Amino acid sequence: MRHGKKFNHLGRKAPHRKAMLSNMATSLIINKRITTTVAKAKALRKYVEPLLTKSKEDTTHSRRVVFSYLQDKDTIKELFGAVAGKIAERPGGYTRIIKTGNRLGDNAEMCIIELVDYNEHLVKEPKKKTTRRSRRGGSGKSGASAETSAPKESANADAAADKEAKATTPKAVATPEAKVEDPKESASAEAKADKEAKASTSAEASAPKEEIKVEASKEPASAEPAADKEVKAEEPKAEAPKEETKVEEAKAEDSKEEAKAEDSKEESNDESASAEASADEEEKKD
């Protein structure tokens, strides 16, 4: 009779059930994921998670305890090696059950059971917990009040130092050079100055035209002889620079001839020196 036996017998006798769960646990540890029914997965989770917790302590005793359940050396090696390193920081809950629907034929509910730390798509980085430690009692309150009063005192000291610095610094004397002009006022002043300059230039340009017209109306005949005189006076002045340029050209030609003569002298000196050197060498050889 099954009085008081609340676990799922899975329709098997005890030795059959233990052997099946041992084989399923071995497959899960080696392959990291297996597909089975939901009932078997829930029974396997209760069977394998205590063994995974036992693997965190890598001792001879824990290895022998786990081996008594799994009866496979390769599985023990994998469990106490790679798997134990993966689950070292996880405090329980090493497996995950993902339902995949019903099986054709007997319509059994199927699922995938896997090790949580080996599913890269669903693994989340653990967040570091920040804990605040506070002391209860009178000592804690006094410490907290002292900590809160310290920043206030430092802030008051800084404010007093700023006031003293402002009081000690002499006030700047307002001078006309130190005044900063507004950009709008400067722009308007520049515009006024431009208008005044344009008006003055237009007045100056109009005044000579009127004077020229008056003079031309008064003395039309006298302007022509004066222009002829000026042209005649300028003609001899233009001839003078031409004579100066001729003299300069002659001097330049003389300087070029002198330079050529000096170059020829140097070349002849070099040839004579080379001839003397060759003669000396021949004498030495003889």
Q: What would you note in describing this structure?
A:
With 286 residues, this protein is mainly alpha-helical. Helices cover 67% and strands 7% of the residues. It contains seven helices and three strands. It has a three-stranded antiparallel sheet. 8% of the residues are buried.
Short description:
The chain has 286 residues and is mainly α.
Task: Describe how the helices and strands are arranged.
Elements: H1 14-31, E1 33-37, H2 38-54, H3 60-70, H4 73-86, E2 95-102, E3 109-115, H5 138-168, H6 183-218, H7 220-285
Antiparallel strand pairs: 1-3, 2-3
Radius of gyration: 57 Å
- CATH C-level class of one domain is Alpha Beta
Q: What strand line-up does the widest sheet have?
A: 1-3-2
How far apart are the termini? Answer: 141 Å
- The secondary-structure class comes to mainly alpha
Mean pLDDT: 78
Total E-strand runs: 3
- In DSSP terms (H or I, runs of 4 or more residues), the helix count works out at 7
Helix content, binned percent = 55-70%
- The parts where pLDDT drops under 50 for at least 5 residues are 172-180
Largest sheet: 3 strands, antiparallel
Shape assignment: elongated
Labels describing this entry:
286 residues; mainly alpha; 50s Ribosomal Protein L17, Chain: A; three-stranded antiparallel β-sheet; 3 strands; 67% helix; 7% strand
